[in-house]
Each structure stands twice: as C-alpha cells, then as structure tokens.
Amino acid sequence: MKDNQQKNRWSVLLGAAFLMATSAIGPGFLTQTTVFTEQLLASFGFIILISILLDIGVQLNVWRIIAVSEKRAQDIANILLPGLGTLLAILIVIGGLAFNIANIGGAGLGVNVLFPGMSPIMGAVASAVIAIGIFLVKEAGKLMDKFTQILGFLMIALTLYVAFASSPPVGEAAYRTFVPEKIDMIAIVTLVGGTVGGYITFAGGHRLLEAGVTGRSALREVTNGAVSGILIASLMRIMLFLAALGVVSQGIQLNPDNPPASVFQLAAGNIGYKLFGLVMWAAAITSVVGSAYTSVSFIKTLHPVIKKYEKTIIVIFIILSTAVFAAIGKPVKLLILVGALNGFILPLSLGVMLLAAHKKSIIGDYRHPKWLTIFGIIILAVMAYMSVYTIMNITL
C-alpha cells in the first residue's frame, strides 16, 4: 500500500513538472527560440542560461509558498489585499486565453502538416475535441498527467533527432553561452515570460495543491518538482536552439512565415517537416490543456458556481479559444509578443508571493529561506526593469 502511495505521489510530481513544462512549450516557444537563434546565433546560449536561472528563482518561490500556505495564488493575493487576487486572476485568465488562441492555431497547423488534406481550422477543431475529452473523463487529473508526460518525452526525442541531423557547432555554442558576443534584453524577457510568466508558473503548483501534495513535509518534493519543470522545458529549448543553430550557421535563411518548420525541414528533409508537424501539434495541444486547466483554477475559488461547474467552464474556455481562432485565423505576429506580454504579469505575481512568504497569517511559522527571498527580489526588479524596456522597444 505504501509503495503504491509513493508511486502515485511520484506520478503526481512528475505530472506537475510536465504540466508546467509542456504549458510553456507551445507554438510561441518554438517560434521565439528559432527567431532568436537566427538573430543571436551561438550567443543565444547565454540568453537561455540566464533565463533558466531566473526561471528557477521564480518557480521555487511560487511553488513553495503555494505548498506551505495550501492556498491558490489568487486566494493568497486576496489575503494580502482584498481585490488583488481578483485582479491577478483576471490578468491570468486574459493572458491564458490569448495564449490559448495561439495554441489552438498551432495545433491546427501541426495537423495540417501531418495531414495536408485537413485545413488548419479543421485541425484546430479536432485538437480542441481531444483536449475537451481529457477533461470530461472521470479521472481527468491522472489522464492529464500521463498525456503531458508522454507528449513531453516525444517532443524532446524528436527535436533531439533534428538537432543531431543539423550538425550544430556545439563547441562554439558552449563557449558563447558563457562569453556572448551580444546580449538582448527583449529576448530574456520573452523567454522568461514564455516559461514562467502569466499562468505558466502556477500550472504545476496548482496541480500539486489539487493532488494534496502540500505542507512543509512536502517541500523537498515540491522543490524537486519545480526545478524539474524548468529543466524539462529548458532541455527542449536547448535542443531546438542547437537544431536551429546548425541550420543558420551554414548561412541558410529560414522561412520568415514559419521559422521552426524551416529548421526541421532544412535539417532532415521531408521527414523533418513531418516531424515538425508532430512536434508542433504535441507542443500546442499540451499547452491548450495546461492553459485551460490553470486559467480556470485561478477563478474557481472566486465563486462557488465556478467551482461547481469547473469542467464545464474549462470546456467553454477551449471552445471560445477555438472559435476566436476560426474567426480571425492564426495570430502569427503575436507569437513573439505573447511571451513578452506574459512577462509583465510576472513582477506582480512574484511580488505577491514574496510578500506572502513573510506573512504569518498565510504561511504560519514557516521560514522562507533568505537566499530565495533575496533572489526573488532581484528577479522582480530585473524583470520589472526589462519589461518596461521591452514595451518601449518591441515592435511588431
């Protein structure tokens, strides 16, 4: 019995890590990584390294406070200042909906690549039906965990194959990771915002809360899960970076209409192009699941009716995202911006967690590590500054 409980607990932790990671790995993630690699070449490795450090600092602060307080982020915010949690929830849901429109579009594109006879809109509708089906089954949480784990492993494996096929200059990439030729603040904000901004950083934390992995006794597991989620997403980013670098370092120009598809096709031919379709679909559909689940988890405690009809509201969220995509088409220009815009929510959500970490009415006699608090404050200040810089300099 004890072995089964430990196995189930490990499955939940791994599921939470993959939910967070696959929520981050969406169409925007693929596009951002490829575009910035083409712009910065091997120096993009430095941007990835800095973003990983910032991501871990954010994730550890957020997940630990959620676990210790045994409360959702919006409830924590409302305790700090009545109405703040409602504002945070609204921002998260709006950001999640914007992400989901792009995610649904990405799923449709992936299906179109795999099955050229199906239009992106038909592919999007079919993908939405699959995502809805996951939430309608009795044990939706367990199915969601397995679904994200399997597709997460698949994405990394396929991208690793393409990375090998493109023969990237690994030595130069490793060197420039620590000695970059150029640094781009917009790229850092976009990567951090796309990995732990908006709803994404709360995806795994809220999943653990729902599964009962909470309290001070679970902190070691929560910490491991938080770091694992970042490392999984970062592994995918590194593989894609190397794949793109192998192509662009040969002087080949990527198709500006679909840069990540270019990488897969140029590195591995028509097989690579089909692999891109599969990776794009897997990245998009898992992000649809993560976005819908986490966005609704932010409003479910605001009113009893929302909690009662949680699954129905998740379904409506997915249907609404699909309907908007079908009406306006894929918002290509927003794929880079959406990560950066999500980064603007990060200083607010991280600030809430850092304040909560030192409020006894929320965390009791738990003492948040000083180094984590200091690290969190530095990240908050850096991200706030870089977000302002980004909004003043980014263009469509």
Classification by helices and strands: mainly alpha
- Integer tally of domains: 1
Overall CATH architecture: Up-down Bundle
User: Shape, please?
Assistant: globular
Strand-and-helix sequence, N→C? HHHHHHHHHHHHHHHHH
Instruction: Estimate the helix proportion, in percent.
Output: over 70%
Task: Please give a structural write-up.
Pfam families: Nramp (PF01566). The chain crosses the membrane at residues 12-30, 42-67, 79-101, 113-135, 147-165, 185-205, 226-252, 272-299, 311-328, 334-357, 369-392. Its main location: membrane. The protein has 17 helices and no strands. It is 81% helix and 0% strand. The chain has one domain: Amino acid/polyamine transporter I (Up-down Bundle). α6 runs parallel beside α12 (259-297). By secondary structure, the protein is mainly alpha-helical.
Give the topology, please:
Elements: H1 2-24, H2 27-40, H3 44-69, H4 73-80, H5 84-114, H6 120-136, H7 140-165, H8 170-178, H9 185-196, H10 200-211, H11 219-248, H12 259-297, H13 304-308, H14 310-328, H15 334-356, H16 360-363, H17 370-393
Helix pairs in contact: 1-7, 1-10, 1-11, 1-12, 2-9, 2-11, 2-12, 2-15, 3-8, 3-9, 3-10, 3-11, 3-15, 3-17, 4-5, 4-15, 5-6, 5-12, 5-14, 5-15, 6-12, 6-14, 7-11, 7-12, 9-15, 9-17, 10-12, 11-12, 12-14, 15-17
Keywords: Membrane, Transmembrane, Transmembrane helix
GO molecular function: cadmium ion transmembrane transporter activity; manganese ion transmembrane transporter activity
Main location: membrane
